[in-house]
Amino acid sequence: MKRIFFPLTLVLSAMILPACDVLEEAASMVTATNSEPTKPQLSNADVVSGLKEALNVGIKNSVNLTSVTDGFLGNSAIKLPFPEDAIKVKQKALDWGLTEQVTKFETTLNRAAEEATKEALPIFANAIMNMSISDGFAILNGGDGSATKFLKDNTTAQLITAFSPKVEAAISKVKLTEYWNPIITKYNTAMNLTGGEKLNPDLNKYVTERAIAGLYHMVEIEENKIRKDPMAQVTDILKKVFGSLTSN
Description:
By secondary structure, this protein is mostly helical. It has two domains: 1-36; 43-246, no CATH class. The protein contains ten helices and no strands. α2 packs antiparallel against α5 (120-129). The termini are far apart.
């Protein structure tokens, strides 16, 4: 019996040892897999915080870019042109040789926007803070400009109301009406003679709406940077929320 037992033991050992190696290797693979860091799960509250942070960063950067000399005038995408509903006034003024006055007016129009924008940051920040978002994921996954569009759709009216007095003060500071009055007075006097329609657009309303539109445009650019460029994700919540997009 002893002669049979010893070889049999050797045979069993030869079979068991490789099997143990296989089991150990499989266990190590499972351990390695389980040790890989998992992406943090995003809640809707996280996403909403990230969206609001992105808009806050966007408006800060936008105000910094637009509230300086030529911030509007030197940016063809947001530059305020001669008011559209008074374009006839511009054409007549040019016909009468008032080119310099028209140029000064258009320049000062943009100076009013640049001046008013200096006061925009707390107004926009307050609107963003109080903005109610029920489904942050829909906006996060909505593509370029989705957060800015949501801000625009939900806060434009209140922003115009809050921003308008700042524009009025800016118009007074840069003396916009001093460049406008000679042009419109001459035009309306001519209309008295010809029976044409008198025009005198609300400059405060015009500058307010165009300045806010310009800021929205710049905020959208900043939002899209944050969506696509990890270097623009400058806070932890931006990295957590928008990093989930850039890492996909």
